Sequence to fold (121 residues):
Amino acid sequence: MELQKIERDFSVCKIAHIDQIDFSQEFVFLSKTADEASLVCETKYTPHNVIASESGWKALKVSDMLDFGMIGVIAKISNILAEAELSIFVISTYNTDYILLKAESLDRGIQALARNGYVIK
Fold:
């Protein structure tokens, strides 16, 4: 399987309101539950009204379009990264998945995935 390295810096945020989110940007991942609203965006576009924010994330995109019937794609990737003792944050979209790693762990994560047959571009 092929993964694409996204050459951007990301932040994971807890937000109170969506009014300052710039939805015109290429990467805006918003989720809301009864307990919270979360945003993942490029660090330079982090809204000023966040409750909490953690920056320093990098992303890998699963290059293939994923079918809902595919089983274990994220499980396999997350197991490899867990064995390398790396923490991840996963975002799923309709078409594919994104795996976020802390910037200082990205190279180790890429090496671990490459050793297990993943191609990173």
Observations:
- The chain has one domain: 2-120.
